[in-house]
C-alpha cells in the first residue's frame, strides 16, 4: 500500500513522529512531506494519507487545511489518518480533526492524539504564560511540560 505522510511541524515534535513513521515503514512505500517545504504535494497515486501537526490557537495549521481543501476530491477516496500533537487539547482533538477534514464531507478517518511537549525558554512571552498556566493545572514540569503518549505513538505506528 503506497502511503503519504503530510505534516506541519513548528518545533520539531511532529517531524520526529514523521521520521518514526518512515523508519517503521522500512522497505514499504511511504513518502514523508513537510507541507512548509512542499506546498504542491499531491495525494495522487497514494492509497493511504496521514495528516499530522501540532495545534496552534485551537486549530491545525492553515497549510494543512489548504492541502485538504485543494485535494478534497482525491482525498475522499483514500484511507485517512490524522495525528495531532498538543499539550492541552485532549478533550478537543476530535473536533480539531473534524474541522480540518470538513471539506471532505466524511467522518470515516482515524484520529490519534499523541500528546505534546514544549521547551518554554524557546517560546514568546504570551505562549510561555499560557503554557505555564497549563503545566500548573496539569501538574507538569513548569519549564519542559510533556504529555507525549508513547502508547499512542506506538498505536499510530502499528497502522503503517
Automatic annotation (TrEMBL):
For this chain, one GO molecular function annotation is: menaquinone-dependent protoporphyrinogen oxidase activity
- Return the SUPFAM superfamilies for the record: Flavoproteins
Domain (Flavodoxin-like) spans 3-160
- Spell out the InterPro entries in the cross-references: Flavodoxin/NO_synth, Flavodoxin_dom, Flavoprotein-like_sf, Protoporphyrinogen_IX_DH
* Swiss-Prot/TrEMBL GO biological process terms: heme biosynthetic process
Organism equals: [Clostridium] polysaccharolyticum
Protein's recorded name:
Flavodoxin domain-containing protein
Coiled-coil residues are none
One Pfam annotation, family name? Answer: Flavodoxin_5
